[in-house]
Amino acid sequence: MVIDQLKAAFEEELLDIAIRGDRRATVTIRPEALPAMAEHLHIKLGLRFIIASALHTRKGFEIYYHFSEDETGMICNLHVVLDGERPEVESLSNMFEASNWIEREMHELFGINFRNHPNLEALISDGNWARGEYPYRKQFKSNGETGK
Amino acid sequence: MSKQTLIPVGPYHPLQEEPELFKLYCDGEIVRDVKWETGYNHRGIEQLSEKKSYDEVFFLVERICGICSTSHPFAFSNAVEEIVEVEIPERAKYIRSIIGELERIHSHLLWVGLAGHFLGYNTVFMWAWKYREPVLDLFEMITGNRNSYAMFKVGGVRRDIENSKIPAIEEVLDLVRRKTDLLTGAVMDDPVIHARTKGVGVLTREEIINFAAVGPTARASGVDIDVRRDDPYAAYPLVDWKVITATAGDVFAKAEVRLLEMYESVSIIRQCLEGLKKEKEGDIEAIVKVIPEGMGTGHAEAPRGEVFHFVVSDGSNSPARHKIRAPSYTNIATFKKSCIGQSISDATISLAAVDPCYCCTERLAVAVDRYTGTRIMNAKEIIEHSAQLTQRLIHND
């Protein structure tokens, strides 16, 4: 199973593992470990990158990187939690093209910076939105946090 | 330093009626670079979804795509049912698969017709669209709508397909099967289509994996993936069928995969209809009252490939986060590989081969030297240019 292999290779980097049924697993990891683990999943184990989903929550910014092991139907989610003020993580676009557009989109909608991305220009708005405004960020008024 | 010409394909009046812009940078007849602009139709559906109840989200996601309008509710229901951990009744599974496969048939017919039209083979266009019509009429009969069928809900389907309607469905399937023979013959045996599509827009297996392309685009390049088989849902594990693949990776292979998939769809629907006859009428949903806290990843095989929905629930009646990925999102990016180095006339069919939202109206062509940075006209300049031309015409009169 994919999770067993991840455990063997990255024991130190795994913060939490949630397994649901035979075909769903979510692994929370340290953001610094993301490139190495994505490389292990995609290059070594041959998993297909489906997409990444960003969330703005009270913890900060969270990204789920969804990978699919098509032989078994297993979806493995790599989960990272980023800083709420300056969200930043390494880009995966230099490893596979598939993450190029979604990282641009997350940068544009959530304001997450992807280090070493080949081209982080706006994908959707073509520069027509106000700079520094990130429409998919949430406003957390209850505890004084702001969305900007 | 060669001078390159920009051929814009878009952004309005596209053949498949969706706005997007491909900028083809050409050196003579040869495409040297492709750039893509989108966002003309950004509707903020992921945000909208967070403000609607789960029941309403089905109607919202159904309107993401007008052609494959059931693929998004399919993936969304898979995601939500994963959170709820509900098993839907067998009859609902069969009905879901019947709707999904009928949609695949009409979507593939639409593509085959458009592909013929792109190549100037309008007989195929007229045939394919003519025989797509009975499928849409069938949808109207069994769901009440020719498109956007509103059949899905959490835990099952909204409407039953009464057993009394099964003969009428089988009649349409007979027609589709016969006409698929006709279309397959018209495409596979035609030397002109061979000449226009073989070796054109080739995507290798490695490129498909790199771009994570899905659906018929991936299967035509020998990447054997299909969510219906790999992560079974609805009635697909209950029926016999096979995944169609090809190896050439060119436009012809993509057409071949789609045509042969229609036979499989007919076969799946026939088996599902037999399944329906064995199940009790009216048993079409498992009652779900509360969506608990949790997250679900649901995917479904749409006609164009895998549709993926990621839903996070906080226990309220709306999703806390709803991420949607349509298959064209990964497939369209492959243009960087399939079009460059080809002639413009081949680029049009290569762009169409992944079945994207595509437009073919060349509204304005401006010669630019990319290296000296000569500017392309912007919207304001186009309007001024147009006004000047109008003035000139009036003056000449």
Main attributes of the structure:
heterodimer; A: 148 residues; alpha/beta; Beta Polymerase, domain 2; five-stranded mixed β-sheet; two-stranded parallel ribbon; 3 helices; 7 strands; 20% helix; globular; disordered C terminus; B: 397 residues; alpha+beta; Cytochrome-c3 Hydrogenase, chain B; 2 domains; four-stranded antiparallel β-sheet; three-stranded antiparallel β-sheet; 15 helices
Short description:
The complex is a heterodimer of chains A (148) and B (397). Chain A is α/β, with parallel strands linked by helices and 148 residues long.
CATH topology of the domain at 2-85 in chain A: Beta Polymerase, domain 2
- Write out the CATH superfamily name of the domain at 2-85 in chain A: NADH:ubiquinone oxidoreductase Nqo5 subunit
- Classify the secondary structure makeup of chain A into a structural class: alpha/beta
CATH class of the domain at 2-85 in chain A: Alpha Beta
Q: Could you spell the SSE succession of chain A in H and E letters?
A: HEEHEEEEHE
What is the rounded distance between the termini of chain B? 43 Å
The secondary structure category of chain B is alpha+beta
What shape does the CA trace of chain A take?
globular
Give a short account of the largest sheet of chain B: 4 strands, antiparallel
Of all chain pairs, the largest interface belongs to: A-B, 33 and 32 residues
The termini of chain A sit apart by: 41 Å
